[in-house]
Design goal:
It is built from three helices and ten strands. The chain is of the alpha+beta class. It folds into two domains: 74 residues, Helix Hairpins (Orthogonal Bundle), CATH 1.10.287.90; 133 residues, Sandwich (Immunoglobulin-like). Bound molecules: 2-acetamido-2-deoxy-beta-D-glucopyranose and copper (II) ion. 2-acetamido-2-deoxy-beta-D-glucopyranose binds next to loops.
Length: 228
């Protein structure tokens, strides 16, 4: 949940998001370094009239300023690729949930539990309770057990949507006729919010995602209520 004026990421609720935040900080440090060095060189150049007699055919400096940027790019690219592959990994999920984007709501199916199904519509502003978050609250939250790997299968029934939970580091396109997959493991219980992230029509802004992460006992209790 972001707060007013927040400029950085939401608190991480999964290990992937922790790594993404670390990567962001790492990139920002390198960016600052480059900006400082280039800024220093430019300033120095502007404030004196000297010229270098050996500026042409200067093999040494040209070697240095070719190799150095290449190394910097490598230091940015390798961790980025590593996280890309970690994000895609679905190794041993304990639960599969399927979500379908519709105009304009999400529906969820728990295929491991006799296909429990539900629609998840945004709570209208006039129906909010005190303390609720406007445009983020839904009537049926998706519930998942914490600290267990969950496999999400994501698709759409009509147009493109995108299922997104920023604090988990998850954003997956929901494409009609295609089943996308993502795995995530939450680190702690809580309610995590997201919003559809692919312009999908008039009510695109009004199909939020609210995910409740609870311990597995509470999850089993919640899911068994559907079958009774
Ligand atoms: C968008 O949602 C509002 C509120 O639920 C509804 O009144 C309106 O008809 C919807 N817009 C369209 C184009 O369906
Ligand atoms: Cu949308």
């Amino acid at each position: 949940m972001p707060h007013w004026g927040q400029i950085l990421f939401q608190d991480a609720a999964s290990s992937v998001m922790m790594q993404l935040i670390s990567f962001h900080d790492h990139t920002l440090i390198i960016l600052t370094l480059v900006l400082t060095v280039v800024g220093y060189a430019l300033t120095i150049l502007m404030f004196n009239k000297y010229v270098n007699r050996y500026i042409l055919e200067a093999q040494t400096i040209e070697t240095v300023w070719t190799i150095l940027p290449a190394l910097i790019l490598l230091v940015l690219a390798l961790p980025s690729l590593r996280i890309l592959y970690i994000t895609d990994e679905v190794s041993n999920p304990s639960l599969t949930v399927k979500t379908i984007g519709h105009q304009w709501y999400w529906s969820y199916e728990y295929t491991d539990f006799m296909n429990v199904e539900m629609d998840s519509y945004m709570t209208q502003t006039q129906d909010l309770n005190p303390g609720d978050f406007r445009l983020l609250e839904v009537d049926n939250r998706i519930v998942v057990p914490m600290q267990l790997e969950v496999r999400m299968l994501i698709t759409a029934a009509d147009v493109l949507h995108s299922w997104t939970v920023p604090s988990l580091g998850v954003k997956v396109d929901a494409v009609p006729g295609r089943l996308n997959q993502i795995g995530f493991t939450t680190s702690h219980p809580g309610v995590f919010y997201g919003q559809c992230s692919e312009i999908c029509g008039a009510n695109h802004s009004f199909m939020p995602i609210a995910m409740e992460v609870v311990d597995s006992k509470s999850f089993m209790k919640w899911i068994s209520n559907f079958n009774s």
